## 1
Amino acid sequence: MQVKYDTILVLDFGGQYCHLIGRRIRENGVYSEIVPHDISPEEVKALNEKFNIKGLIFSGGPSSVYDANAPQLNPRILEVNLPILGLCYGHQLLAQLTNGKVKPAICKEYGIAQVTVDKPVGVLEGLSKIEKVWMSHGDTVCSLPPDFEVLAHTDNCPVAAFRHKQKPIYGLQWHPEVIHTEKGARMLHNFIFEVCKCEANWKVEDIIEKMIKEIKTDVGSAKAIIGLSGGIDSSVATALAAQALGDQLTAVFVDHGFMREGEPEAIRATFEKYPINFVVANAQERFMNKLIGVSDPEKKRKVIGEEFIRVFEEIAKKSGAQYLLQGTIYPDRIESGIRKNSDVIKSHHNVAGLPTIISFKKIVEPLRDLYKDEVRKVATMLNLPKELVNRQPFPGPGLAVRIIGELTSEKVSVAKKADAVVREEIEKNHLEEKLWQYFAVLTDTKATGVKGDSRAYGYVVAVRAAESREAMTANFAQIPYPILEKISTRITNEVPQVTRVVYDITHKPPATIEWE
Ligand code: XMP
């Protein structure tokens, strides 16, 4: 018999971190579904047939509760008698709907803030008097009706956390789902287990079966192709699709010419050994031709996204495939602005970079709700090789989005050489396990140098190394100076066109990990 999972529903008000809340809940062994912000009590009841709904979380969002088009809650949701936790926008909305007062904050807070915990109870159980939390808000709750009480405040925010005096209803102005909130995991744990009384009866293994079943249902007995870049996402998607479809599947590696040094050969060597239909499309020239004169990053991504599809379509025509599978994961979709209340940060080539007219019956994305580290867990469970599981993420458009401005063959060659040096030095010093990504960016700035007593005027290369858990936020890595020095010396010595190397010391946010 299938287990009825204890489940928390996350109502999506468009926040960048909404889906991350779901993921943090799953980390606790409790299932979570993201649902539209205006879900009705009847819809919640219908979901209860499949799951044991134990609580609701209202996510953050980019709107102010006063915006004309601000996403609204179905007010009857407050009557379903389930525990509720409002976060950021959700916190403000809860306060507004229960007759509290919300105003534009005198001083907006973005980033790490210090909060004073006035009452460490309920969701805040076990916290210290002063805690570090991650805030990102323009409005603030300034007063509450008598049946509510304040649990925490900051210098700029008199009601940073509240609860209802009788009912299990809580609001937090900050984001416990973001790792920069030091005790965020404890707060969510308190809500899930102490307030909602959930039982941890879900595990990541359960999704493998679900994904294989979904692929079979989508594709049926038809033929399909899958885009295989050699990265972890597409490799896991291929392993699942191979189990689901067997011989109906062909995996296609598109060599667009913007892969890292030695990579196309390595990918070919790895996948030719596997018992799958594997095809390499040599498409270097056609990608470069399409990108002539293109310097805008969003345009670049869209041109690349479209060209990938055109290559896939040609191969599908030959093999009779009607379906395209991709290893798209959740952060690709969220940054591409897939939800109606969220912003486009960048068009990931495999999501918003897709053309509108496509000759496939459907694009199937089995990993669409997973984060990279969840994909890694699935990869380990599928026994994929260690070097694949631990491979650093690499964007589908490759070095094309790490060369700022228009591409030329010379720039691609410079970027490849500089990137190879960064990788070699980081790996030689065994730093790779601590890093999410480490790479070189070829900027569109030139600078003066002096090489061998002569004036030189060449490219500026930026080195980027970031630590992250799932790419939604990241910190620049504090690489020891001697290693940075070695990287800089080697790049300027070994790549004659480069006169200067700089190190990127920006977190995400406000920067993104890739430069374009
Ligand atoms: P950003 O730069 O948005 O990147 O902080 C987050 C993660 O996504 C990767 N990335 C991409 N992956 N297609 C992909 O398959 C893309 O178009 C793309 N753009 C960024 C990036 O390398 C990082 O790990």
## 2
Amino acid sequence: MSTPQTSTPRAQPQTYSVKSFGCQMNVYDGERMAELLGAQGMRAAAEGEAADLVVLNTCHIREKAAEKVYSDIGRIVKNANEASLPKPLIAVAGCVAQAEGAEIPNRAKAVDIVVGPQAYHNLPQLVADAAAGKNALDTDMPAASKFGALPARRKVGPTAFLTVQEGCDKFCTYCVVPYTRGAEVSRPWGDVVDEAKALIDAGAREITLLGQNVNAWEGEDEKGAVQGLDGLIRALDRLPGLERIRYTTSHPNDMTQALIDAHADVEKLMPFLHLPVQAGSDRILKAMNRSHTTESYLRIIERVRAARPDIALSGDFIVGFPGETEEDFAATLALVSQVNHAQAFSFKYSPRPGTPAATMADQIAADVMDERLQRLQALLNRQQHAFNAATVGRRTRVLIERAGKLPGQMLGKSPWLQSVHLQTEAKIGDMVDVEIVAAGPNSISGLALA
Ligand code: 5AD
Ligand code: SF4
């Protein structure tokens, strides 16, 4: 687990900070690492206070995200020097840790700990090793799940993430996830339900079930019956105190009719679906190894809309995949126009080491990608604004998440995951009845109803 002694021993850290990049699963992992360090008697460094241990919970999905960790490390060292403080212990966690392993301390000498996403339950031991002057590295993907070794959930805000599934077996040709997060694994039914109960006891009103392929979740319920994500959602629906359920990210091939049906009749399941299609050209989808077509995706959207007509659709898009012609890209724009998104994420293709697409012929020039991304984002932004505008006049409920900048202003989310501003005396965690009165490109305004 650890390599021989490489530096002078130092005191065990008393304070920590955890900074997460990338996806919501990293946010969840970051929270759990913080809880784990807290259970060791360490405390979170206050705002502006230099922590004794800095955990950088990294993302490897695109080159820009992966490189960010190195500039962050440089900044942490510089800040410590300028303040004449000792360099903090630096831990690189997350997907860059998994992908680059021992190369990280070779490239950035200031790094003391490298810990992969399936090994962070070992963080306390790694911190002790690093403080004792040993370089500590753990990128194992053990058969036993890390979750059992983590402390119970104690204190959370009104919206909480709950990882139910990790890893991916789909091997899209552009994607590092199958390598950094490993094979598809579902957490057991009982563990998920227990964690959901603990989150509700700790103050959660909304739970978002997380997984790289969350709709591939499968498990046996307490009676031994095999259940899919829909069964898990229905079990959570029965938990008193929980108001809202969401899930992300889904793959079109795992979108079962049972899950679609849950959107029709589970009241707590919010009318929102993040279902990435990535591109609108079947030729490109095939080269991406997406194992679905534009047609099969459109049929799913049709069935989802039949079950829940007001559903807000979200997705991910990649422009400039190797070999993408102007015609292929036009097919993506056409698909987006046909579907209408409430929001979506779009990215320029980024070649990732070890993935099949990185060595494909016909890599697309940066300026072509830039221009395509601009056109796609302009269309998606118009759709988002139109979606927001179409909700004006509706009466709905908002879950209050935090205070706004203006006096008396609070911010929350609508069922369709729109950010809502409103004037109210309601507190964080309250559900407020509102009428939507105005819409902008990125948020809406609500009037609290008495
Ligand atoms: N380049 C650009 N975008 C990528 N994504 C995954 N891998 C890459 C890559 N190599 C995008 C996909 C995925 C989202 C999380 O990130 O759209 O759905
Ligand atoms: Fe990556 Fe494809 Fe798996 Fe999504 S489905 S995590 S894009 S390999």
